[in-house]
Amino acid sequence: MFDTGDVSHPLPQSLLAEAEPFDDLLPEEAFPGDSSPGKVGSRPVLWAVPSLAEAARRVRTTTLAVDRALPVLEALDGLLPDGLRRGVTVEVSGTGARSVALALMARATGTGSWAVVVGDGDLGLAAAAEVGVALERLVVVDAPGREQWAPVVATFVGAVDLVLVSPRHRPSIGDVRRLAARCRERGSVLVNLSSESSGSPGVGRLVGDWPGRLDLRFSIDEAVWDGPHGGQGRLRSRRVEVSVTGRGLPTEGRRDTLLLPGPSGVPAHP
Amino acid sequence: MGGSAVISAAGRTLVVGCPDWPLVALGVASDESALVLGAGRVVAATGPARAVGVALGQRRREAQFLCPEVRVLARDEDQEARRFEAVVSALGTVTPWVEARRPGRCSFGVRGPVRLFGGESALVRHTAEVVDAAVARIGAGVPVGTATGPGCQIGVADGAFAADLAARSGGAAPEHSVIVPRGGSPAFLGPLPVGVLLPVGSSVGSADGSTDLVDVLIRLGLTTLGAFAALPVADVLARFGTDGLDAHRLASGIDDRPVGHRPAPPDLAVSMAFDPPVDRIDRVAFAARSAAEALHERLSARGMACTRVVVEAETEHGQRVSRRWRDEGVLGSVAVADRVRWQLEGWLHGPPAVRPTSGITRLVLAPDEIVPASGRQLGFWGGVSAADERAGRACARVVGLMGPGSVRIPEWRGGRDPDDRVVLTPFVEPLGEGGSVNCPGRGGKPEVEPWPGALPGPSPAAVHLEPVVIDVVDAAGAPVGVDGRSRLSAPPDRLIVPQPPAGSRPVVAPGARVVAWAGPWPVDERWWDPLRRRRRVRLQVVTADGTAFLVVLTDGRWTVAATYD
Questions:
Q1: A54 → chain B, closest CA residue
Q2: Which of A119, A126, A262, B182 could pair with B459 as two cysteines, CB 3.0-4.6 Å apart?
Q3: What is the mean pLDDT of the segment spanning B363-379?
Q4: B41 vs A162, higher pLDDT
Q5: Please, what is the end-to-end C-alpha distance for chain A in angstroms?
């Protein structure tokens, strides 16, 4: 409709609540060579255009309640019955942290949300695909330097729904606070992958010290693998006890037993 | 629209193209076998390399497979821009209205110079001499215009699109340059394939706005520009929109500028002042990016986009450089920022005669020609959504912050080991305005392809980029080995980890005891090739704290390749 520029469709007045002062309106003499036949009345063609962004803003639909939370896998329904609320900062720690983080991202990426992983070069992408993360909406970013960490993460927090970070250096309190505020404002979810207990992987990862408020904290307490015995078989599934604490949850948090990964790769209930 | 003599609205244009400019800029002789890689793909290749089948857009592995002894060089865009700036300024003696497109390609209208030099062929000859002299002066050491070197290609036609194709279809200037007579564009463009409508560097299959059009045309059976141009204009507009209309005008040889182009009003220019003067490229590049974004925002607030921009820079001592830049289609903010950087690189680091004597104090970006921005159609399904665009823009911004190759997107490839199955390719901002990380369906579901010897699922959630070397010992403390029949010498009992570097956490807890294990699974790849043979044995172990690892034995050494995190 607005493409050729030769025919202009003036926006109906009902769309614009108040008249816009077109102080940057250009006189017709500015375009001597313009031979467009379709000028409406005597108004130059550019009239409709400055209101375009404004009209787009007004006709955008209001946010539905369902959009205030990202969908999660069925297996995680016991832990997050209302889905993953937008704008939260989440920490996932302990053995199996990455699997939990991938499980949180799985269904959301399947329904059109984008996810970005910043600074975790060891993330297994085949595992991500098996858990259900849509690889076409996943972006992997190299670990930024100390000064660039906050700007890079802030760039993504505004633009995508899920940001998974694994900082090597402890971020400053101010940066973390600003990121949390930006998350809340834009509706993104920031997931911090940390390693607390010894014996869990993550050479050089920040030791569980996010200098800011965490809205949700996931941790895996017990993990038992099923499958290999005496050289036979293979790793099939892992029975884990996941607990989540944080805002909007009962004080003792919620616990659930899951198969992460399940026998088919997707997390499941035992 | 199939008339033989069409009065084209575009003026006569001459396009100068230096093929394989990345190679020329790096000083590679054209008789050796070499190629230049950019963003993981081949962007230029010498004659001997092409003769074996290396083509543009191939990945590095494919090219090396076709030609194992080819010399692989990394692309140096700044060097290319610097050296090409010398060529463009040399062409300034022919005409002041040279438009640079990108390193390796520039153009100018011939109306003025033709009168000066008396005829188009004479102009072509003179231009070829000037360009050859400039390239030789760079000191690239490349034999230009000889039997082995391609030299520069020159084409003259109505409009830059036809002239560009004329240059590409001709041979080394000036004897083999193609001059398309006035009004002869439809006849010249008719037999060319529709693939030439694609921007340089992309190909059918990489999902992009313009490649969709070409894809559909090919499937409809319209494989030549002539067939496409024969369609009625109204139908093309109805079916394909403005992009299709622009392409149709290109194919008919009418005009190579998008519909609705007009000169820009002067208040759209963006200027930046630097105090103290700047002479460091990285700071100027940063300023260039912010100026380009400001310009882009100013234009898109009016629903416009620019197709030609004039970049001017001035130093403290009053020296100036000013250049027009244009490219196929619309110049997005990234494209403009790149061009500003190229121009300033070429100026600040150019030959001493041209180099300014002090830092830059003022930078002005003025759009010269603007068109109404058609914008991207936000599709409900299958198309580019607002979330895709936002993600694409954020990726482009971070690429600007951290450098190319720092942002990558995964692609399913398939393989035997967890680190092989998904490959990461660098994110590349597509040309033109807007940008989305393409394409839907690229990641794809894992295909069920037979990979004999593949590790069974589930895949580990952590695949270590740098496998940790460990010792696997049995109950007696002896290292566990594998015999010729892939049997373990003894069941593994403990994993012994060497001292980790200070300040980092160990991947495996020291003294981890093995409570369960499965394997060994041997794999012997390329046993016929002694140089590239890969033999390894994989073992899954579960330690006492419930963590599972994938340990691999190669050449007598055990490493932790992955952790089932």
A1: B301
A2: A126
A3: 73
A4: A162
A5: 55
Q: Nearest chain B residue to A123 by CA: give it.
A: B462
Q: b/e per residue, A95-130, with b = 16+ CB within 10 A? A: bbbbbbbbbbbbbbbeeebbbbbbbbbbbbbbbbbb
Does the distance separating the beta carbons of B395 and A201 come in below 8 Å?
no
Among A95-109, A241-255, B106-120, B253-267, the minimum mean pLDDT is found in B253-267
Q: How many CB atoms lie within 10 A of CB B297?
A: 11
Average pLDDT over residues B353-377: 79
Mean per-residue pLDDT, A107-111: 89
d(CA B128, CA B145): 9
pLDDT of residue A142: 92
Report how far residue B408's alpha carbon sits from residue A193's, in angstroms, rounded to the nearest whole number: 20
Q: Is B476 on the interface with A (CB under 8 A)?
A: no
Residue listed under structure tokens 């007004």: A58
pLDDT grade, residue B374 (50/70/90)?
low
Minimal C-alpha gap between A146 and chain B (Å): 12
DSSP A194-235: E--STT---TT---S--SS--SEEEEEEEEEEES-BTBBS--
Q: Is the pLDDT of residue A202 over 60?
A: no
Surface of A (52-81) touching B: CB under 8 A: 52-53
The yes-or-no verdict on residue B410 having pLDDT over 80 is yes
Q: Can you tell me the distance from the alpha carbon of B65 to that of B506, in angstroms, rounded to the nearest whole number?
A: 39
Q: Show Cβ contacts of residue B379 under 8 Å, excluding neighbours closer than 6 positions.
A: B385
For the full predicted model, state whether its pTM sits above 0.80: no
- Whether residue A38 lies within 8 A of chain B, CB to CB, comes out as no
Residue in A1, A2, A3, A45 to test binding to B, most B beta-carbons within 10 Å = A3
B residues 13..32 contacting A (CB < 8 A): none
Range from A60-74, A249-263, B169-183 carrying the lowest mean pLDDT: A60-74
**Using a CB-CB distance cutoff of 8 angstroms, which residues of chain B are in contact with residue A34?**
262
Q: How far apart are CA B398 and CA B395, in angstroms?
A: 5
CB B363 within 8 A of CB B287: yes
Q: Which of B387, B397, B442 sits opposite A112 (nearest CB)?
A: B387
Task: State the pLDDT at residue A192.
Answer: 93
Using a CB-CB distance cutoff of 8 angstroms, which residues of chain A are in contact with residue B402? 141-142, 144, 148, 152
Residues 77-136 of A with CB under 8 A from B: 95-99, 102, 112-114, 116, 121-130, 134-136
Q: B80 with B21: CB under 8 angstroms?
A: yes
Radius of gyration of chain B (CA): 28
Q: How far is CA A248 from CA A25, A210, A216, A245, A252, in A?
A: 51, 20, 9, 9, 11
Subunit contact B460:A224, Cβ cutoff 8 A: no
Alpha-carbon torsion B457, B461, B463, B464, what sign?
Answer: negative
- What pLDDT sits at residue A188? 92
Residue B205 has pLDDT above 80, yes or no: no
Chain A environment of B405 (Cβ under 8 Å) = 142
What contacts B145, CB < 8 A, 6 or more positions away? B128, B132, B151, B152, B172, B173
Q: Check if A37 contacts B (Cβ < 8 Å).
A: no
